Amino acid sequence: HAITAELPLNAPRIIGSVRDQNDQQVSGVRITQPNNTFTTTTDVNGKFELPLSSGENVLHMTPGRFKSLDLSLALKPDSTYYLDVILVADIPKNRAQNSSAQWVEEP
Prior knowledge:
With 107 residues, the chain is mostly beta strands. The protein has strands spanning 13-20, 30-32, 39-41, 47-51, 55-62, 69-75, 80-87, 100-105. Strand 2 and strand 3 (39-41) form a beta hairpin.
């Protein structure tokens, strides 16, 4: 995991997992924040962790054989968010389905 920017100690963080539509973990998905230099890659279990800045954030996921996915998130300081991403294979448009993501803030 490579994080190439410094953040305050109270920066919100995302803990997530990436799976495919068959519930298999997806490793090697690159996750970036286009407006910053925050970047990471999912591990062999499809897991990742990424600190971000507070406020509005966009995450861009580049998963190789799957459709790319952009997520808009509004994050609060001192918070941890859990993100579960399900990617759909990049198939012809006439049969295309959308990738999805669900996220929750830690109570």
